[in-house]
Structures are given as C-alpha cells and as structure tokens.
Specification:
With 380 residues, this protein is of the alpha/beta class. It has three domains: 2-156, Rossmann fold; 163-240, no CATH class; 262-379, no CATH class. 31% of the residues lie in helices and 27% in strands. The chain has helices spanning 10-14, 17-25, 40-46, 61-70, 85-103, 134-144, 151-161, 222-228, 288-299, 336-346, 359-373; strands spanning 2-8, 30-36, 53-54, 75-80, 113-117, 125-128, 147-148, 164-169, 172-179, 187-190, 193-198, 203-208, 211-216, 218-220, 238-240, 262-267, 282-286, 305-309, 327-331, 353-356, 377-379. α4 crosses α5. The chain starts with a strand and ends with a strand.
C-alpha cells in the first residue's frame, strides 16, 4: 500500500508524534511524507527530519493532499495537533472539503483521507474522512490509544461554529465568518497576517467588499488589515494563538558561502516565503511581527537580519531567535513602514535583492536614513 502523510503545524513535530506515527504507518506499506503549511518547516529542521518529510515546497495542507492524489497513493493521513479538539476538527473539516473541491471530478464521494488529531492529549482522535476507511482508522486509533470520531459528528458540530454568511445590500457585499476554538486574548491571523486580537471565545470576522472591517468579540488591528489588503474571507486561512507554542532548542544548519559580495534581501511582509531567503547573507525586515518571524526562521540558516520595528509586537511565537550580527532598530509608532520605504528606495533602488561588500557599512547607511527621518529611535 502506498501511503501519503501530510504533517501540519510545529506541535506535531515538537511532540515527537509525527515520527512515531510515520513509524507505525510503515508497517502498513510504503510511506512518503510532506509538510502542509509553512510554520512547520522550522520544526522539521529542528527535529532533523528534513530527509523524511519533504519541505522543499510551500504548500497548503489541501495542496499537499492533492499532490499525493496526483501521485496515486492509496491513502493519505493528515497529522495535526490543534489547540483543542474543536480547532483541530474544524481544520480537518475545511482541509478535506477544500482538497476534494480542488481535485475535481475524480472523487465524486470522498477522498481517501484519515486525520490524526492531538495524539498526545486526552481528547485526541482519529477521523476517517472517507467512511470506507473506518476499520483502518480504528486500528490506528487503538495503536495510539485514541478514540475515533465520525465525520458526520464533526460536520454537525461545525455547522454553527464555523459558518459563513453572505449578505448583499445595494453595491455592498458583506461576509461574516465565525471562528471556532478561540480563547480570549489571542492573536487572530488571516492568511498569515495578524489582523486583530480576541476579547472573548465567540469571534466573528466581518468583511465588506473584500476588506476586513470588524471583529465581533475582538479588537481589529488597523495596520494588519492594511497589510492584508483585499481578502476572500470565506476561503481565507484563519489561525489564532501562537504560530509555534513549544519552547525548543533550534538547530542551525551549516552554510557554505564563499562569495566575497554579500547578498542582501528586503522583506516587508511576514506572510511571504521566508525560507526562500535562506541563501541570503543579510535580510532587511520591516515590521515587528515580520522581524520576529523572519529572524527566528533565518536563525536556522545562520542569516542575520536588520529589523525596522515600532514596538507594536504581537508575540506570534513563544520564543524568537536572532543570528549573531543582527540589528533591530525601534522607531516611533507607525514610522517603521515609512522608514522601510525610504531604505527600499535609497539603498535597494526598488529591487528586492542587492549586493554589498560590508555589512557594518550597510548598517551605518541604514542608521543615517533613520536619523534623517526621525530623531526618536533606539537600537535594541
């Protein structure tokens, strides 16, 4: 039997269950694994599993499933470790639905998918999204000492907790989307960008004409909404809480950089593929969350960052790391984007990547731009 495994999220890797489950599945047939999502990449590297789990592509979980379907595997396992069974089941429901929709007419009923959710917890479960796989799901659940949960029970549960409503009034189209499994005082991410913070466990996102305008039960982050721009709220990827909850010992990969010129890349959007910058010598980051996420990821590749922030930090990971030689400059609130644009214009000449000879001279040029723009800044 050809088995595809889609691993989603850092917690499944940090807990050690991804490798354990892959070993169990190995007794059933040939196992191939790939990542679904992006934040799990650092966890794969830290766990030394990059030879067992393919992280070479930036794929959504549903895209990873579809890729396995294209490769004609017999069965696919989706491994996830949500904050709660509610968020985990909501995730599996949406992913299975999206994967089936994306794939077209080949699967008129169900795709051959089994979800393993929160295997280290008392509410952990195994979900056969194709009922024909129920017997196998029970076997796997017994091996992991988990219960099985039917797709029908999840669909009933999700009907009210994650429903999306659409209203059209004259020229305005309003979309409301409920978010399941939220706790008070958590970050709310839309397509990888922090757009607000929860104030309760009952959250509804509201968009008008594809622009997020309010969060019922939470507080909107205007700057995040501006960065997000227009959004298809019904199909957007919504996450809450921390991107990585575990405290880990990061693994730094060896690099072989012999070019005397230094490759410098500009990054002003945390949702971009930071891993594509691992061959840079320095990365200039703009924004608190962008700087924190990029610094933490690039630490694994020994790439320093020069961050421009304004103190509006949302703490999207439990603990962040920075490569030696990094520099973070904090300016007045709202000025990080202004200064970032000046740096991009004057030093990068509007190009995403440039070459320099000396990093310390380059840092000096950045400080000069900051000084000419504002007198209120500090180097952290």
């Amino acid at each position: 039997m050809k088995i595809g495994v889609v691993v989603h999220g850092p917690q499944m890797l940090d807990s050690g269950y991804a490798e354990k489950i892959m070993d169990i599945l190995g007794s059933y047939g040939e196992v191939r694994a790939r990542l679904g999502g992006t934040m799990g990449r650092t966890a794969v590297i830290d766990a030394k599993l990059e030879k067992k789990i393919d992280i070479t592509q930036k794929l959504l979980p549903s895209q990873s499933i579809n890729k396995f379907l294209d490769e004609d595997v017999d069965i696919i396992f989706l491994l996830n470790y949500g904050k709660s069974s509610v968020t985990g089941h909501a995730f599996g429901y949406k992913v299975s639905k999206r994967a089936k929709t994306n794939y077209g007419s080949k699967y008129t009923s169900n795709i051959p998918l089994i979800q393993i959710e929160r295997p280290g917890e008392s509410d952990g479960s195994v979900v056969p999204w194709d009922p024909e796989l129920s017997d196998l799901a029970v076997e796997i659940a017994d091996a992991l000492r988990l219960k099985t949960v039917t797709p029908e029970s999840i669909k009933r549960e999700m009907k009210d907790k994650t429903k999306c409503t659409l209203k059209t009034h004259e020229e305005n189209t309003e979309v409301r989307r409920k978010v399941a499994g939220v706790s008070p005082d958590e970050n709310i991410f839309l397509n990888g960008i922090v757009v607000g913070r929860s104030k309760s466990s009952d959250i509804t996102l509201v968009a008008e004409n594809s622009v997020l305008i309010s969060i019922i039960g939470g507080q909107l982050k205007k700057h995040g909404v501006e960065k997000l721009g227009k959004v298809d709220l019904e199909n957007a990827i919504v996450k809450t809480g921390l991107l990585r909850r575990s405290r880990v010992q990061p693994r730094v990969l060896k690099s072989d950089k012999s070019n005397p010129k230094l490759k410098v890349t500009y990054l002003d959007h945390a949702a971009e593929d930071v891993y594509s910058l691992k061959d840079s010598d320095v990365v200039v980051t703009v924004g608190d969350d962008t700087t924190l996420v990029a610094a933490d990821i690039l630490y694994r590749f020994n790439v320093p960052i020069i961050g421009i922030t304004d103190g509006d930090l949302d703490r999207v990971v439990e603990e962040g790391f920075k490569t030696r030689g990094s520099m973070v400059v904090e300016v007045e609130s709202g000025w990080d984007d202004i200064i970032g644009k000046k740096i991009f214009s004057k030093l990068f000449n509007g190009q995403k990547t440039i070459e320099i000879m000396d990093i310390e001279n380059f840092k000096g040029e950045i400080i000069q731009i900051i000084r000419s723009t504002t007198t209120s800044y500090k180097i952290l």
